[in-house]
Structures are given as structure tokens and as C-alpha cells.
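Researcher: Please translate sequence to C-alpha cells.
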Amino acid sequence: MFKIVNIQQHTLKLLLLLVFSGFTTILQAQQAGEVRDQEFIIRKDRVLTLPQKPRRFEIIPVLPTPKSTASFNYTVQSYFLSLPPEAIRPEAAQKQWPRKQEEIYPGFVRLGYGNYASPLLDARYNFTEEEDYDFGVRLMHEGFYTGPVDGSNSAENFTQFNLDGTLFKDFFQVYGGVDYDRHHFNFYGYDPENVLLADFIPNQNTLNTFRLRAGIQNLEKMESFNYDAGFFIRAFNDRYLAKETELGAKAFGDFWFDDYLSTGIHMNLSLTRPEDELYMDINRNYFKVNPFVQYRKSGMSIVAGANIIFENDVTFNKRSDFHVFPKIDAHYMLADEFGIYAGFEGDVLRKTYMDFVQENPFLGPSETLLNTIQNFQAKAGIKGVLNDELSYELGAAVGRFSNMHFFVNSTADSLRFNLVYDDDTRMINYSTKLGWHIGKVYRLDATANYYFYNTNQLEAAFLRPEWELSLNNNIMPMDELLIQLNANMMGGIQGLVNFGPEEVNLSKLPIIMDIQLKADYRVNERFSVFAVGNNLLNRQNQRFLNYPVRGIQGVGGITFKF
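Model: Translation complete:
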């Protein structure tokens, strides 16, 4: 009973407390309308954190696996056939690759004949079946058994024989060969209308040259280091007392640092022993070294080096046998259509007796043999290509030379020529080159040169042309026909005839004009016909004083490959 009364009392007290609290709150709310100063504090650094509440995931119920009610039955039927298994035999594919015509027809023969009793034979054969080496042989003979002066008195003929071979290795090749040249001719430079020479029989001469050569060079020319070195032995003689032996060697090597910069060296050695009527037991030695540096990039090329020469020719007032000259050559293409070039070089030009007699075969006994000293030669010009068809080059060169050689008629025998030298020769050369091509149908190559000589000891630049002009036209209207029309002209040539110690006769030769026409028609792959016409204007051209060339001269024949 006591506990129940007690609980009631506590309940009553609690109710009275709640009523009093609510009344107090009402009173405070009635007083809240008053405006009072308030102050609020905002804390930015306070972070509210809430406790994490675990999330409840429900597991996806596993669906029942569908079961098929259909039944699949396969019926296998056996076929009893007695067939053997297929036999597969792999074989390499056989394909006939086309071969070049040069490989199919290694042999070549040309036969012809023309006026002036002129037979022509040119035969070649190359053995190229082996992989490690190849070699070839050539025989050529061309004769003119009558000539422009008294028939057979002005006859001449040429014979050449060549044997070449090459041995190929992995990184280099060894090459060599044997050459033989024979030139037989008459000294026919006399007046056939002179009654005193009605039965005159001129002297004959035969120039024989035998040459043995060998060398080695690398195969891959795109390597950083390239080389080519070789030597030769040459023996020369004529029907008189002139003879000359030569031991020579040439070498070249270059090294490329990159695609633009390289360095290299050229070497040339020539040891000769000439003999003639006026001298014998002479040793003419010549050794030249040309180191250089080359830079080329974006249409620009510069080559700078030096020519270092030792030669032992004996001349008047010679200071030394040792020579050093600069050599600079440069060109720069501003565009394909226009570029400039320039160069400066000094050198010693090697001249042997064979060099002189190849230039003028009617050479007689000479007192001395000298190299030509090129003290300097400077050149400059422009060049370019227009429309990928027309190429041009215009330039000028000026030089100073010592011991430049010229030819004059001998006082003892006007049918022969002697060598004369000038100690100080100034030369100016203006040159023009022009090229034009239209596909394979037409090609033109033209060159023109004008020379001005200022000699110190001689009256003129004897038997050297004042100007030269050359025009070469190649016309191919169809694949089977090739036509060549060429023109070669010279002018301003002066000769000298000495009648005595005080009497000198200068003779200016007429303009040389030689028009040449060639045609070659291919009948089939093996057989073709040709025709050649020389000096079609029938002019009495004289390259050397008193020696007119043949008039209109033609040769026709056939060519056969095998």
C-alpha cells in the first residue's frame, strides 16, 4: 500500500514540473520581441564527422538451371570404300626469270666496207657464265688503203686488241688486262701537183703500243671507305728510233665521315725512259699527291686540297723539282634552274712522248720532252637545268702556263713536225655547254670554246685552234632506228714553216668543218644494219699544215649478235 501511494506522489510532482516549465517558456517567448545585440561565432576549421553505418547487401538468389526435355540422337553410317590416302609431294616452284639481252648474246660482230678501200671489222666476246670472274676479248681493224693524196701514198689503218678480266670476291674485285694498239700511216704532206714529186713515195711509220695493267677496288661504293689502286707497264716504239717505256701507278681513296663531309687522296706515279735520235738514257720521273677535303649539302659542293708534285725535267732557270699548288673547286645551286661555280688550281701536267705523238702522229725527232707547268688557272661561271629538259653552262677561265707545247713544221723535213715550247703563256678560255633532251626521241649536246693565247717567245699559238664548235644530235623516231647527226668545226689555226734562220712564213689554215651522219636500224634482236658518212661537205680540211683529210667517206655494213 505504501509503495502505491509513493508512486502516485512522484507522478504528481512530475506533472507539476512539466506544467511549470511550459509556463516559463511562454513568458520568455513573450519577451523575445525585444531587439538585443547578438554575437555569432563561425568556425571554419571544425569538421563534422558521422559514424559509418554498415550497409546491408542482399545476396542474389540462384536461379534454377534450365533443363532440356528434348533428346538428340545421331545416326552414323559407315561407307566402305577402298581409297588410298592422298600423297603430297612438296616441290620448289619453277619459274623462268627473263634474262637480259647482254647475257643472252655475249658476242658481237660488226662488218663493213666503204670507199677509200676501207674495210671495217669489230668483234667482241664476253665470258660471263662464271659467278666469280668474267673476261672479255675485243679485236678491231679499220683501214683506209687509199687516201686524199696520190691514192695509196696517203693510206693508213688502225688495229686494236684488248683482253680484260675481273675476279670478284666478297668485298673487293681484282681487275686487269692487256692492250695492243697499232697505227700505220704515211707522211703524205707534200704537193702532189709538183712535177718534181711525180714519182715521190713518202716514208711510212708504224706506232706500236703494248700495255699490261692490273688493279684492285672495293665493291660496295656506299661504304665509308672506298679505294681503287692499280699499276701498268707500257712499251712504245715506232719504225724509226723513237721508243719509250713507262712504269706507272695510280691510287685513289676516300673516307666519308657522314653524308656531307669526306676526305680523300689521289696519287699518280710515272717513271719513263724515252729514246730518240737526239737523246737516250733519260729517266723522266713524275710523282703527284692530291689530298683533299669535300663538303656537299643542299646543292652546295666545296672541294679544297693541294697538288704536291715532284718531277725532274731539266729546264732553264728551274728553281726546284718540288712543286706545291692549291686546288679549290666549288659550286652552289640556288635552284635547279640557276647555279654558280668557281675554281682555282695549279698543277704540273704530265706529258710523255706517247702523249705528244697521239696528238700529232706526224711528229719527228724532238730535242727535249717537257711537262707543262700550270702556274694557275681560275674559272667561274653559271649553270642550271630548265624544265628538266634544257641544261646549260656558261663560263670563263684564265690561266698562266710554263713550257706549253706547240707544233711547227721541221726545217729539215717539212713533212714532219717538231715540238716547241713557250716559257710564259697566258690563256683565256670562254666556254658554253648546252644539252637538250626530249625523252628517248631526241638529245642534243653542244659545246663551244673560244681561246685567246698570249705567248712570250713564239709568234703565235701554232696549230692550236682559236675556236671550236661541236654539235651532236641523237634522233630515235622508233625503237629500231637510231640517227646521229654531228658537226665539228675549228677555226683560227696558224701554221709555221721555217725557210731559213731569218725568214719565217706564217700560214693560216682554212676553217675545218666536218659534218657526219650515222644511222643504225635493228632488223631483229640479233641482226642490224648501219651506215656512216663523214665529211659530207667534201671539204679539204687540214688539222695539220699540208695534211688534208679524206673527202666524202662512207661505210656501210651489218651487225650480228651471238
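Researcher: Any highlights?
Model: Residues 112-561 form a domain with the Maltoporin; Chain A fold (CATH 2.40.170.20).
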